[in-house]
Specification:
Elements (H helix, E strand, L loop, with lengths): L29 H14 L2 H6 L1 E9 L6 E2 L1 H14 L4 E10 L3 E10 L2 E2 L5 E7 L5 E8 L7 H12 L4 H16 L14 H12 L4 H4 L10 H16 L17 H11 L1 H10 L23 H7 L4 H18 L2 H4 L3 H12 L3 H16 L4 H7 L3 E3 L2 E3 L4 H13 L3 H9 L10
Parallel strand pairs: 1-7
Antiparallel strand pairs: 1-2, 3-4, 4-5, 4-6, 6-7, 8-9
Helix pairs in contact: 5-10, 8-12, 8-15, 9-10, 12-18, 17-18
Length: 431
């Protein structure tokens, strides 16, 4: 467990007394409360750390443009920072100078016991009459450009080596789909073929098959199998909105999920894959602990919460996907015939010179491979304990294990079924 360390070169000049009762720090001096704050930080117990501050506290950190006003805002900030810093980082107190209501602290940061360059700092705190921190001013050491983002990035890979899989697939995907010649048919993206952009325009006009189904006059004629693949792919991409609870104030991601979902409607796997290797995983362990419960209200944004937890989402998008498959098989018979073999042959001829259509098939394969990567963490958010890849519990656990496997290993329709049948997130209003 990370712990507070004091430098022997600069002994703490204030005796520390135990706290009794519910009001932390009352009549015990500022040193004790400040050390409690740093100790809670190193334990990553941000709820306790925030409880050492008054409800109307004001914290200013020179690394951020705005101050954090109020205990709730400061706790949200602490949890965001916690998710971005490796757990091997500890704040080490070098010295404290204090009076009854004020304290100044010198500190530095260590990684597994080794001091990090350019991580020294000082902080000044004032306490109210109840011994809670009322104001704080934190001044980190000015340094050359830091590699904090890179350290967070690399730490994620060290802790979860499976992240290398989507990372390598992403690199290969971008090269093969956008830049290579000869691996996929057609010209690469740098050649900017007019035919490519015309095809993209025509497919976009027939989005979700609304225009051709209604026989709207502006609807272009496109090979029905290409339309079917395109709309199946977009329905599948939209279905990942069911995992919007993966983005919360207390679990930020290096790559925000909302913009990722929007990007997936245009560049599909080019956005999905980096999100998979950059996202923050849910904490492992006993999910019944109160501080780990995820509520529907915790999802960033009211719209995101409503969409992500909308029960018919899987059915609606699953219906679009099935309609796309049927369209590919039976639509536009007057132009492309009713014979399945002839239709497939003409589609193969199209793909033999079409980079866009070929890339859609690559995207379908990637979606099938990675759709299950969200499922275990989604179940953890819903209070389901998973140990060593198995749902733990009694009663409904067998049904949940079946649903989990369907979601992970049955492409598209398995995900639609999971979003329809999974347990709901609790609401604070009914707790």
């Amino acid at each position: 467990m990370p712990h507070l360390v004091s430098s022997t070169a600069s002994p703490i000049p204030f005796s520390i007394q135990p706290v009794s009762g519910e009001v932390k720090g009352k009549n015990d001096g500022s040193t004790f409360i400040v050390e409690q704050y740093f100790e809670a930080w190193n334990r990553r117990d941000m709820s306790y750390a925030a409880s050492l501050f008054s409800e109307d506290c004001q914290m200013k950190d020179l690394q951020y443009p705005e101050s954090f006003d109020g205990q709730e805002a400061f706790e949200r900030h602490l949890k965001r920072v916690e998710a971005c810093l490796p757990h091997s980082f500890d704040f080490v107190v070098d010295d404290i100078a204090s009076s009854r209501t004020k304290a100044g602290v010198l500190w530095h940061v260590e990684n597994d016991g080794d001091a990090l360059a350019f991580t020294r700092g000082c902080s000044f705190y004032t306490l109210n009459n109840y011994g809670l921190i009322e104001t704080g001013f934190e001044i980190p050491e000015k340094a050359p450009p830091k590699l904090g983002w890179w350290r967070t990035f690399s730490c994620k890979f060290r802790q979860e080596p499976a992240r290398y899989i989507p990372a390598f697939v992403w690199i290969a995907y971008n090269y093969i789909v956008f830049f290579s010649d000869g691996i996929l048919p057609g010209a690469n993206a740098l050649q900017l073929e007019p035919r490519t952009w015309e095809e993209v325009r025509d497919l976009s006009l027939n989005f979700f098959l609304v225009a051709p189904a209604l026989e709207l006059p502006f609807s272009p004629s496109v090979h029905p199998m290409l339309e079917g693949v395109f709309n199946l792919l977009l329905a599948w991409a939209a279905m990942f909105a069911g995992f919007l609870s993966d983005e919360r104030e207390d679990k930020p991601n290096l790559m925000p999920f909302g913009p990722t979902l929007v990007g997936m409607q245009f560049l599909t796997s080019a956005f999905l894959l980096p999100y998979l290797f950059l996202r923050t995983s849910e904490p492992r362990g006993d999910v019944t602990e109160e501080r780990k419960v995820v509520y529907a209200e915790d999802i960033d944004g009211a719209v995101q919460s409503a969409v992500g937890e909308w029960r018919p989402l899987g059915l609606a998008l699953g219906g679009v996907g099935i309609a796309s498959i049927l369209w590919a098989l039976f639509a536009r018979q007057e132009e492309f015939g009713a014979d399945f073999g002839g239709r497939c042959a003409s589609f193969a001829d199209l793909l033999s010179v079409d980079r866009v259509g070929s890339s859609f098939l690559v995207d379908l394969a990637i979606f099938a491979l990675f759709q299950g990567w969200f499922v275990d963490d989604d179940l953890r958010r819903r209070g389901i304990l998973i140990e060593e890849g198995v749902v733990v519990g009694e009663g409904e656990s067998n049904n949940l294990e079946v649903l989990r496997n369907v979601a992970k290993y049955v492409p598209f329709l398995g995900l639609a079924a999971y979003l329809t049948l999974r347990p709901t997130l609790p609401h604070r209003s009914v707790e």
